[in-house]
Design a protein that fits this description.
single chain; 295 residues; mainly alpha; disordered N terminus
């Protein structure tokens, strides 16, 4: 019976019998439906506009639906604009960023959660402080470092290494990992220590299998963010053979391609995010509270 009373979320069945709560629920639903329509409308507009010809694109008054949907235009845009190459470059950059984020941020979170070396509180304070700084403050120092890495003097420009390294040094994800690892039972760690396992073995054999949810969430958000990454690839990489989706879409503004081709190119750029959300919707929604899990 108690579960039946929660079918409206924070409003129970008894609340819904009162007119003011019914009105509140109705207004909330109207607002959410309107918000969803506003969010989806640009994507639908891009998709439909891509199938219009040039005259329809600039017709006055504007039309929402194209007169004819020619699906062969998708293949033409894919091959003529060589989107397979940009997809490959973007996926390479994104997968490397995911691996870097999970390994570096995960290990950092494990150290702060379980090993707790001297100065842990100071390190946590510094991490929280870094999260408060605007990202633009670090743009010039990071660029200078990537142009000539300290100590080794290696130039990392024209490679994906700067994106991978920056993805690994993610203050928010370090805290997310730490909070999740704090919820893992200490008895499992102690049993592994008794069996002679070292910290590396404990992390890869015990922590990672028990922390699949947080790794999935961090991996999805990192991958999704890198798919639309524009600023750093544009700033660091000028080689055409390493161009990613976000940079190529920007360069199309100065190209000779017609507007319908540019619209379909935009559609191709959002397809990965749509697929990721459709497949991992439960994990994405569950990721909102994942940092607060306690054992």
């Amino acid at each position: 019976d108690s579960m039946k009373n929660m079918d409206k979320g924070i409003l129970t069945n008894s609340d819904m019998k009162k007119p003011k709560y019914r009105l509140l629920y109705t207004l909330m639903m109207i607002f959410m439906i309107a918000y969803c329509l506003i969010s989806v409308l640009p994507v639908v507009w891009i998709m439909l506009s891509g199938f219009k010809d040039v005259k329809e694109m600039y017709a006055v008054p504007a039309t929402f639906l194209p007169k004819r949907i020619d699906l062969s235009k998708l293949g033409k845009v894919w091959t003529e604009l060589k989107f397979y190459k940009y997809y490959g470059n973007t996926f390479l950059m994104a997968i490397g960023a995911v691996i870097s984020n999970i390994v570096i941020s995960g290990l950092a979170g494990y150290v702060l959660s379980r090993l707790k070396p001297k100065g842990t509180k100071i390190m946590l304070a510094l991490i929280f402080w870094i999260m408060l700084l605007p990202g633009t403050m670090s743009t010039v120092p990071l660029y200078m470092e990537f142009k000539s890495m300290p100590l080794i003097g290696v130039n990392l420009l024209e490679t994906y290494w700067p994106i991978w390294l920056m993805s690994g040094a993610n203050a928010f994800n370090i805290i997310l990992f730490k909070n999740f690892f704090d919820g893992i039972s200490s008895s499992l760690i102690e049993a592994a220590w008794i069996d002679g396992a070292n910290n590396t073995k404990i992390f890869f054999k015990i922590i990672i299998p028990l922390s699949t949810p947080v790794f999935i969430v961090v991996g999805m958000f990192t991958f999704n963010g890198q798919i639309g990454n524009f600023f750093w690839p544009y700033l660091l990489i000028s080689a055409k053979e390493k161009t990613v989706l976000g940079v190529q879409l920007y360069k199309m503004k100065a190209s000779t391609y017609t507007m319908d081709y540019q619209m379909l190119a935009l559609l191709f750029s959002v397809i990965p995010q749509i697929i990721i959300f459709a497949i991992f919707q439960k994990q994405i929604m569950g990721g909102i509270n994942i940092g607060g899990v306690k054992g």
